[in-house]
Amino acid sequence: MADYGHELLFGTFLTPQNRDPAAVVDLAVLSERSGLDLVTFQDHPYQSGFLDTWTLLSWVAARTERVRLSGNVINLPLRPPAVLARAAASLDLLSGGRVELGLGAGAFWDAIEAMGGRRLTASEAVGALDEAIDVIRGVWDAGERAPLRVRGDFHRVDGAKRGPAPAHPVPIWVGAYKPRMLRLTGRKADGWLPTLNFLKDPDLRRGNAIIDEEAQRTGRDPRAIRRLLNIMHGPGQDQGPLQGPPERWAERLLPFALEHGVGTFVLGTDDPRAIAAFGEVVAPALREAVIEERRGTSADASRPAVGPSAGAGADPLPVSLRARAVRPGDSAYEKVRSTYLWPGSPGLVLRPGTPREVSEALVFARGQGVPIAVRSGGHGLSGRATNDGGIVISLGALDRVEVIDRQRRLVRVGAGARWGDVAAALAPHGLAISSGDYGDVGVGGLATTAGVGLLARSYGLTIDRVKGADAVLADGRIVRADAEHHPDLFWALRGAGGNMAVVTSLDIEAAEVGDVVFGTFLHAPADLDGFLRRWGRTAEDAPRELTSFLSVARRQGRYVAQTSAVWAGTDVDGASAALQPFLGLAPVLHQRAELVPYAAVVAPAHNDHHGRGPIHSRSVLVRHLDGPTTSVVARLFDDRAIAHLQIRSVGGAVGDTPAAATAYAHRFQNFSLNAVVREGREEQADGLWDGLGEGLYLSFDTRTGPHVLSRAFPPATLRRLRDVKAVYDPGNAFRNNFPIPPADRAS
């Protein structure tokens, strides 16, 4: 048996006949009105009796509002993949994200050749499709700056500009029957789209097995591949399971969902009565039957409710969460499965839209016995906002930014917002919040850890300005935490929030900051050790108005060091005097300083995150960039143990807050260092790195365990955190972030 847990979808497979063009469009509109999810058309460009499928898809997109659209399947030999990619992305943008892409390797080669296409053998056609998928995905990858180059045997793209990106992650479905095509599906496709009438009885099971084996061999989750099935119905068709009245069809289709993993049923017919019945009678009945069967399955403790046997209707997933839940195989899965750097394969992503729904999501997730990750919406290095096989609670919909008291400069920010959007929303009010150095960072993660931003020396850490928070506790209770309500929790949320609760919003005191002076310097230091010491003295001696960050990398045997510095205000003369000393630190390759809105420094990005690759990062906090520190860093670079280094100023106003006031207790250090360790060099790097400094910033260290925990929190702070943990999360539900074990209250 194979139930991949996909939400059931239903669609139609219409004939694009041109004798009555309006009739086929009317059938597409009827499909939508009948509640179906998908409309598809066969694509045979050599058929003079057919409309052009892509033109028809575009016309139908304009006539419909909700239904998804696809070729079934697009004839690749007559549609160049680079052009097809742009056409699909364009229609997806125009239709609001309603395009799916079914591809075929080609058939009817005499007709294809007659239309100017190249005749291919069966083996060549598979190879051409393989290359075409690379071309299509490469065109869609608009975030990649390098020109697209695919130099295949059948498709060559040499330096093409990428884009546009589709409005949503367009899935690629492959019509496949034979082993090579099935393996290609398992390796690269998002869906398998065969026609039942062309399959023998065991072929679905055999096809699934080949796809699953290839997916696992290449490191993919088989659940990420949706299983679709065309079922033909009408005069002259072998109606298979669609015999008798439509009321009986659901009963006969049920085994295809539960035993063969079919998540999308596509009815091949031009009969309006059959279309209406499929949407209004069959689809609701089959969905309900699958819910009932999955409910019984999930009650078996040996089979988790999240995973291959779970589905959108698997009890007890609250109704309020079902519409936005995402599972492997859903069209949105690729967009939500991973974080900025870390790839993930969660069994379920829940996207609540209110604190009450966050509570429901958390209670549900805790009952499943799988890892739980909470994602606040954006960028992040640690990889703790995704997992494999567990549940991700994504707070991206809780993104409201509201100035609730301008006189007190009090701002309420949803935990799922991104800091670039916060800066843009506050700019018209002449306000700003110190918040990292990149606008794509999520509010919740940063504002519950510390928040080392480009205004830190002037206004302190982000947590220093937090005046209250709304949070969901491990047992589902929604509470307010501030100086008067749950003050112990409020203390812990400011420095270790991810271990205590799910924060849904924060009240933060903003600063009166509009325009700032933003300076950047690109140096080429020959002596990294000496450069770092000079840079540290310069940054530390600067007035509090200036906060400086430094990034260092080694390229082609040369060091490149970039300084980013913000002067918090419009005093251009003061800023110039503070920035001038940086020019003498090493040869300058580039320099720039300008008066800009703070919102331009941390501009909104809204990047899609696809897990570029896991990294191993290390953090340390130091009082000064003195010889013992800089010599170790230089040695790690020389030994090729680290690939990148960032240094952030955390002196000035950061030290104004007493160490015991928040769970982030590191208030005497002036610099926060984090480094990316090269693969395979972790042990070598740690041997030197762990001898540096006093403390670390936990969001920049990918390690866990008692040793790292003791460096993140001084002993007194850690004891207090464990006591708070025992009160608010005694069962240690929030243990997949940076684990803090609750105190044993019996001892």
UniProtKB/TrEMBL annotation:
<dbReference type="InterPro" id="IPR016167">
    <property type="entry name" value="FAD-bd_PCMH_sub1"/>
</dbReference>
<comment type="similarity">
    <text>Belongs to the oxygen-dependent FAD-linked oxidoreductase family.</text>
</comment>
<dbReference type="InterPro" id="IPR006093">
    <property type="entry name" value="Oxy_OxRdtase_FAD_BS"/>
</dbReference>
<dbReference type="InterPro" id="IPR050416">
    <property type="entry name" value="FAD-linked_Oxidoreductase"/>
</dbReference>
<dbReference type="InterPro" id="IPR012951">
    <property type="entry name" value="BBE"/>
</dbReference>
<protein>
    <submittedName>
        <fullName>FAD/FMN-containing dehydrogenase</fullName>
    </submittedName>
</protein>
<dbReference type="Pfam" id="PF00296">
    <property type="entry name" value="Bac_luciferase"/>
</dbReference>
<feature type="region of interest" description="Disordered">
    <location>
        <begin position="294"/>
        <end position="314"/>
    </location>
</feature>
<dbReference type="GO" id="GO:0016705">
    <property type="term" value="F:oxidoreductase activity, acting on paired donors, with incorporation or reduction of molecular oxygen"/>
</dbReference>
<dbReference type="Pfam" id="PF01565">
    <property type="entry name" value="FAD_binding_4"/>
</dbReference>
<dbReference type="InterPro" id="IPR016166">
    <property type="entry name" value="FAD-bd_PCMH"/>
</dbReference>
<keyword id="KW-0274">FAD</keyword>
<dbReference type="GO" id="GO:0071949">
    <property type="term" value="F:FAD binding"/>
</dbReference>
<keyword id="KW-0560">Oxidoreductase</keyword>
<feature type="domain" description="FAD-binding PCMH-type">
    <location>
        <begin position="342"/>
        <end position="513"/>
    </location>
</feature>
<dbReference type="InterPro" id="IPR011251">
    <property type="entry name" value="Luciferase-like_dom"/>
</dbReference>
<dbReference type="InterPro" id="IPR036318">
    <property type="entry name" value="FAD-bd_PCMH-like_sf"/>
</dbReference>
<dbReference type="InterPro" id="IPR036661">
    <property type="entry name" value="Luciferase-like_sf"/>
</dbReference>
<dbReference type="InterPro" id="IPR006094">
    <property type="entry name" value="Oxid_FAD_bind_N"/>
</dbReference>
<dbReference type="InterPro" id="IPR016169">
    <property type="entry name" value="FAD-bd_PCMH_sub2"/>
</dbReference>
<dbReference type="Pfam" id="PF08031">
    <property type="entry name" value="BBE"/>
</dbReference>
<keyword id="KW-0285">Flavoprotein</keyword>
